């Protein structure tokens, strides 16, 4: 995650005018449903576009455990996404092994440290595809 709760609050309050641009890349807000609590959980995440979809990476900085938001969307793949002032429902899915070789370089171009994070763990770091649902 980026700046956590403060990042989310500033992003929401300004429709991304503050928080969308972050350290030379771009961030969105992903809202998942807690798999144990049922509560909504927000995570600011680096993203890139791929056609009509949005891509994020479940890196957790290269930790052996995946990020909590990834565990949540695996349990309930219907999520909410905010990109700047655009808020929409999406279905989240892990990129397939066939898709990942195309998608990983898109994300490492946006945040080169993802390659370093992958060297820190035996866990295969997933690329997550966020597909907008009809409103």
TrEMBL record:
Entries under InterPro entries matching the protein: F420H2_quin_Rdtase, Split_barrel_FMN-bd
Reactions that this protein is recorded to catalyse: oxidized coenzyme F420-(gamma-L-Glu)(n) + a quinol + H(+) = reduced coenzyme F420-(gamma-L-Glu)(n) + a quinone
Superkingdom per UniProt: Bacteria
SUPFAM superfamilies xrefs: FMN-binding split barrel (SSF50475)
Entry-linked Gene3D superfamilies: Electron Transport, Fmn-binding Protein, Chain A (2.30.110.10)
UniProt-recorded Gene Ontology molecular function terms: coenzyme F420 binding; oxidoreductase activity
Coiled coil ranges: none
GO cellular component terms, A-Z: plasma membrane
A Pfam match: F420H2_quin_red
Family from the record: Belongs to the F420H(2)-dependent quinone reductase family.
PANTHER family in the record: F420H(2)-DEPENDENT QUINONE REDUCTASE RV1261C (PTHR39428)
Protein name, UniProt field: Nitroreductase
Source organism of the structure: Streptosporangium carneum
